[in-house]
Amino acid sequence: MMAREAKTKKEEKVIETEEEKEQKEEKTSSSRKKIKPKLSKEIKELLEKRRERYEKQPDFKRGEWFRYKKLGTMWRRPRAVTNKQRKNLRYRPPKVRIGFGKPSAVRNYHPSGFVEVLIHNVKDLEKIDPKLHAARIGATVGTRKRRAIVEAADSRGIRVLNRGVL
């Protein structure tokens, strides 16, 4: 009899926590809308073209990535004189080349359409135009300062790209 009561109490706790999670999600989603950039028609078209080209682009892999596990797939330029990938042999993966480039007008744009600006403190937010720029908080910024930056950005209507769970 005690075991059944214990199970039901656990189930009640699980149900309560799920309800609490839903309430928290509702609060966060309703209080914060995703800010969108104001882009010209040309920039929108170029961003769409860039997205299409990314889909067609092959995965550039390091030479002989399949042979040695320690190498990994991350791209490294082949430099050796006898390297088959450098010689463009067909049975090797494609090399990174200038022809795979994207439109230069939208280079350094985030996929959302904003230009990224790296932020390390609240004072850096003054440089940002909320219509064109989005903030990316630096990796070395601690939690306390990160919270302050996010609050200041929300009050000014600036989008934070790596907001995280705060």
Which key phrases capture this entry?
6% strand; two-stranded parallel sheet; mainly alpha; 166 residues; 36% helix; 3 helices; 2 strands
Task: Give the helix/strand layout.
Layout: H1 2-31, H2 41-56, E1 115-119, E2 133-137, H3 143-156
Parallel strand pairs: 1-2
Physical arrangement of strands within the biggest beta sheet: 1-2
Coarse morphology: extended
Element string (H = helix, E = strand): HHEEH
Strand content: 5-15%
- Cα(first) to Cα(last) distance is 42 Å
Which structural category do the helix and sheet elements fall into? mainly alpha
What is the count of DSSP helices, taking H or I runs of 4+ residues?
A: 3
Taking all Cα atoms into account, the compactness measure Rg is: 24 Å
Textual characterization of the structure:
With 166 residues, this protein is mainly α. It has a domain at 110-166. It is 36% helix and 6% strand. The chain contains 3 helices and 2 strands; from the N terminus they run ααββα. It has a two-stranded parallel ribbon with strand order 1-2. The protein is extended and about 60 Å long.
